[in-house]
């Protein structure tokens, strides 16, 4: 059964018990935009206790707030009672809810295009917020007074940027002015929620627009001040005819469409070390900006509570991005180690758009593409010829020397100088490591 069919079944079941039930929110918006909804949320006048009685499998995730999960066919569906929020306590969460009717439930929602209900039985849209008009005009507009709505819940400011960029909508001027006025209050929102919104906007179909809107709304300075700092940092014209570091970064993002998370953050942060390393000598230089940038990227991603493995991969991309200029001069073993990196494919994609967003010279990229084609996985990362035990058996004492010998053997193997265990043993003996 498709998700939509399961959701329809929930609606039919609720109706057969005498309740109202509609599709609501993002799924209605996406259905009207002829996009595939991620989730199908249901709104009803049944209260959580009744929902729990009607359906065999429910999870009371937010029963106090009227929200239940109904499990159908192994999928979770949010089934929520019509509700209105009772004031806001901490700039983010309602102090409580009051059960009400469908219209009032529409009015508490954030944007008009998110405030639509759909009756799948009558095939009718219920629209108390003029959401259909805004969907047609591609406008993202707060429901009610924008400043009041953003003051209730500051996360909505980032949601505005997220929906506008993901959907390719314009933010209605009054709504946008309210974000500009209130952007400093975004700090009332937790780092985790900020991170989730950033991830959604940057992995959407228009990450460049997301960056532009963050910038114009003033939210960039609050949530990613390090990125803001790249604005106005001049670069040498010969390598960067396109402009300053921020413009260059935006051009990278504009080339991406629904990118992987590591790739887009690696692009966003690859030159984050430039503002701090800017020097004018013979020309503008940013010596060490890759290493400095890696540390800054690490701090940003820790602040935003990124999972460690994601953070490590992004940081590796930032730290390694200048090595591409040397690939043609690398020794075979160094090059193979470069190709072995977990993040290599991501870095290669990043390097390509980095070039396209500046001088346009793709010769190193082509060189690597050809190299990858001519080598097998076994040639790039061959099985080790010797183990620590083999070295001990040769009479070497335990200690750091063993590791050094193994690395030297690996190096020679990657240089295609050694290809069997016997050759490797003879080579070690002849070298006489000390
Ligand atoms: P997505 O496709 O990203 O899931 P969505 O519109 O479904 O988009 P959700 O965060 O899943 O967004 O929320 C579901 C609905 O709940 C929204 O469409 C909106 O009507 C309402 N909503 C969610 N968060 C808020 C909020 N912070 N303030 C007001 N209404 C909200
Ligand atoms: Mg949703």
How would you explain this protein's 3D organization?
This protein is an alpha+beta fold. 52% of the residues lie in helices and 11% in strands. It folds into four domains: 1-131, Beta Polymerase, domain 2 (2-Layer Sandwich); 138-223, Hydrophobic Seed Protein (Orthogonal Bundle); 225-380, Hypothetical protein af1432, CATH 1.10.3210; 388-431, no CATH class. The chain has helices at residues 3-16, 26-32, 48-54, 102-107, 131-137, 146-152, 155-167, 173-182, 191-202, 207-217, 219-223, 225-228, 245-254, 261-269, 274-277, 289-303, 308-320, 332-340, 344-356, 363-374, 377-380, 388-393, 400-414, 421-431, and strands at residues 21-24, 41-44, 58-62, 67-72, 75-81, 83-85, 97-99, 117-119, 124-126, 139-140, 170-171, 279-280, 284-285. The longest helix has 15 residues, at 289-303. The radius of gyration is 28 Å and the shape is elongated. The N and C termini lie far apart (68 Å). 37% of the residues are buried. It binds adenosine-5'-triphosphate and magnesium ion. Adenosine-5'-triphosphate binds next to α7.
Chain-wise SSE layout:
Blueprint: H1 3-16, E1 21-24, H2 26-32, E2 41-44, H3 48-54, E3 58-62, E4 67-72, E5 75-81, E6 83-85, E7 97-99, H4 102-107, E8 117-119, E9 124-126, H5 131-137, E10 139-140, H6 146-152, H7 155-167, E11 170-171, H8 173-182, H9 191-202, H10 207-217, H11 219-223, H12 225-228, H13 245-254, H14 261-269, H15 274-277, E12 279-280, E13 284-285, H16 289-303, H17 308-320, H18 332-340, H19 344-356, H20 363-374, H21 377-380, H22 388-393, H23 400-414, H24 421-431
Parallel strand pairs: 2-5, 10-11
Antiparallel strand pairs: 1-2, 1-8, 3-4, 4-5, 6-7, 8-9, 12-13
Bound molecules: adenosine-5'-triphosphate and magnesium ion (MG).
Magnesium ion is lined by residues 26, 38-39.
């Amino acid at each position: 059964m498709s998700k939509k069919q399961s959701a329809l079944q929930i609606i039919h079941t609720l109706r057969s018990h005498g309740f109202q039930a509609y599709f609501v929110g993002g799924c209605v918006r996406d259905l009207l935009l002829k996009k595939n909804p991620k989730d199908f949320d249901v709104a009803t006048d049944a209260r959580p206790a009744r929902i729990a009685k009607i359906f065999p499998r429910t999870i009371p995730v937010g029963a106090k707030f009227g929200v239940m999960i109904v499990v159908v066919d192994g999928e979770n569906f949010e089934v929520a009672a019509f509700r209105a929020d009772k004031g806001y306590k901490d700039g983010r969460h309602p102090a409580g809810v009051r059960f009400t009717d469908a219209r009032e439930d529409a009015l508490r929602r954030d944007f008009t295009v998110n405030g639509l209900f759909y009756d799948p039985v009558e095939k009718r849209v219920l629209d108390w917020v003029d959401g259909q008009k805004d969907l047609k005009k591609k406008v993202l507009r707060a429901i009610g007074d924008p400043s009041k709505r953003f003051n209730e819940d500051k996360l909505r400011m980032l949601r505005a940027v997220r929906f506008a960029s993901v959907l390719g909508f314009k933010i209605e001027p009054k709504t946008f002015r309210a974000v500009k006025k209130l952007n400093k209050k975004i700090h009332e929102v937790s780092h985790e929620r900020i991170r989730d919104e950033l991830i959604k906007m940057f992995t959407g179909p228009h990450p460049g627009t997301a960056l532009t809107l963050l910038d114009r709304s003033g939210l960039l300075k609050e949530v990613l001040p390090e990125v803001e700092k790249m604005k106005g940092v001049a670069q040498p014209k010969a390598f960067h005819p396109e402009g300053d570091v921020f413009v260059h970064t935006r051009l990278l993002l504009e080339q991406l469409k629904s990118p992987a998370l590591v790739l887009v953050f690696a692009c966003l942060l690859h030159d984050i070390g430039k503002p701090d390393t800017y020097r004018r000598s013979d020309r503008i230089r940013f010596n060490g900006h890759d290493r400095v940038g890696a540390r800054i990227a690490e701090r940003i991603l820790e602040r935003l509570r990124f999972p460690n493995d994601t953070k490590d991969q992004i940081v590796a991309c930032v730290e390694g991005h200048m090595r591409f200029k040397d690939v043609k001069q690398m020794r075979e073993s160094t090059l193979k180690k470069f190709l072995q990196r977990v993040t290599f494919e991501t870095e290669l994609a990043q390097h390509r758009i980095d070039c396209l967003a500046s001088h346009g010279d793709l010769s190193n990229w082509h060189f690597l593409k050809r190299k990858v084609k001519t080598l097998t996985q076994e040639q790039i990362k061959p099985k080790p010829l010797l183990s620590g035990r083999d070295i001990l058996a040769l009479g070497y004492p335990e200690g750091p020397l063993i590791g050094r010998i193994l690395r030297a053997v690996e190096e020679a193997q990657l240089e295609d100088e050694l290809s069997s265990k016997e050759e490797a043993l003879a080579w070690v003996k002849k070298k006489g490591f000390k």
